[in-house]
Specification:
- The protein is of the alpha/beta class.
- It has a single domain, classed as Rossmann fold.
- It is 34% helix and 28% strand.
- The protein has seven helices and ten strands.
- Helix 3 runs parallel beside helix 5.
- It binds adenosine-5'-triphosphate and magnesium ion (MG).
- Adenosine-5'-triphosphate (ATP) binds next to helix 1.
Length: 214
């Protein structure tokens, strides 16, 4: 089953950023995108994950053209089917780590698995306010929050940017096991080439185009 499909995608701000990008992601598959800072990786992820309408080209998620959906249908899609992990973490600042997970799980009709917290090494900090956590702890809480929603497709922008090597490896193990087990998909943006190459396909964003690295 195809989870994500896009053909001839182009986007420009006041200058062209990328052009004629085509990409497909099937259930159980992982794709990594690498490229230098400023090459347009985050923007592409925003376009593919329903947050930014491209200038031309369609994005199909689960067989639906997302930019033809109503705002209500989009909200539902994001709430139930998409797991979005961005470079800056959108946690509710006044709340504890646990409350942040609880809200996401409740909205998606899922429960929080203790094993996930243990594997991410955050079970000891769940009662603390997110503003009291380190950058890496906040990042791990964001990951736990997303996986607790049981998404069909995960978009992760530098999810291991603040983590040490061992923790980053554990996060990658979790993602890959999760998508296998749930026949979900992972679209990962990373500067870490070693992590990237654990994905089924690796693409490089360069001069506005995406090419597969073999
Ligand atoms: N909303 C916007 N309006 C105008 N220009 C933008 C906007 N968002 C991003 N850009 C520009 O588009 C280019 C690509 O940005 P983007 O964030 O996609 O890069 P990136 O590959 O994710 O970089 P990094 O590795 O540093 O995260 C940058 O030059 C950035 O300034
Ligand atoms: Mg970026």
């Amino acid at each position: 089953m195809t989870l994500l499909k896009t053909t001839n995608l182009s986007h420009r701000f006041d200058y062209p950023l990328f052009e004629a990008i085509s990409l497909e992601l099937k259930a159980g598959e992982s794709v990594a995108i690498v490229g230098v800072s400023g090459s347009g990786k985050s923007t592409l992820l925003h376009v593919l994950s329903s947050l930014l309408k491209p200038n031309s080209g369609d994005v199909e998620l689960f067989g639906k053209n997302i930019y033809a959906l109503s705002e209500k249908e989009l909200v539902k899609l994001r709430r139930h089917d998409l797991g979005l992990i961005y470079q800056s973490h959108y946690l509710f600042k006044g709340f504890s780590a646990y409350e942040n997970l609880e809200v996401a799980a409740l909205l998606a009709g899922e429960t929080i698995e203790n094993e996930l917290l243990v594997r991410l090494g955050i079970q000891q900090v769940m009662e603390q306010k997110v503003t009291e956590l380190s950058g890496g702890q906040q990042q791990r809480v964001s990951i736990a929050r997303i996986l607790s929603k049981k998404p069909r497709l995960i978009f992760a922008d530098e999810p291991t940017g603040n983590l040490d090597h061992a923790t980053a490896t554990e996060v990658m193990d979790l993602f890959l096991e999760y998508i296998q087990e749930h026949q979900s998909g992972l679209l990962l943006v990373t500067h870490d080439e070693v992590l990237a190459h654990r994905c089924d396909h690796v693409y490089r964003m360069l001069d506005g185009t995406l090419s597969e690295i073999v």
